[in-house]
Design goal:
alpha+beta, 3 strands, 38% helix, SAUR_fam, Small auxin up regulated protein
Length: 77
């Protein structure tokens, strides 16, 4: 794996967006336990099923995803 492609410990890469509008974002693993993130995972299952190959793809806009992650971070502080 090339140095620029390495994912820091404690993070997972997530591909967000739909169609041509896709963006790769690193998400801290602690966020995966939050109820609003679990809802995003449910959306991914509804859209793509449990058999996704490679990077996890979540079908929501980058703006909506950032708002959700921001809300998770605020609730933790």
């Amino acid at each position: 794996m090339a140095r620029k492609d390495r994912v820091p410990r404690g993070y997972i890469p997530v591909l967000i967006g739909q169609g041509e509008e896709r963006e790769k974002i690193l998400v801290h693993m602690e966020h995966l336990k939050q109820p609003c993130f679990l809802e995003l995972l449910d959306l991914a299952v509804q859209e793509f099923g449990y058999e996704q190959q490679g990077i996890l793809h979540i079908p929501c806009t980058a703006e909506a995803f950032r708002l959700i992650i921001g809300a998770i971070r605020k609730s933790k502080s």
